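Extended Data, panel c. Modelled sequence:
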Amino acid sequence: MSESHKQFKRPPKRYQPRGLSILYEDRDILVVDKVSGLLTVSNGKVRDNTAYYLLNEYMRKGNPKSRH
């Protein structure tokens, strides 16, 4: 398989934040696909329904590798 056709390693099944798909994860990198319309960060009015918030939740409770 050529370098340009390398497949991403999919994470094992576990908590998936609604509106985000975890495409790749290793110790240093987390690649996600967010749905259209989901804010990346808070705009002052919306705080909980953002990619930033959902990824923090994922790292806090959905990622067994994270022990914060």
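The chain has a mean pLDDT of 79. This feature is highlighted in the accompanying rendering.
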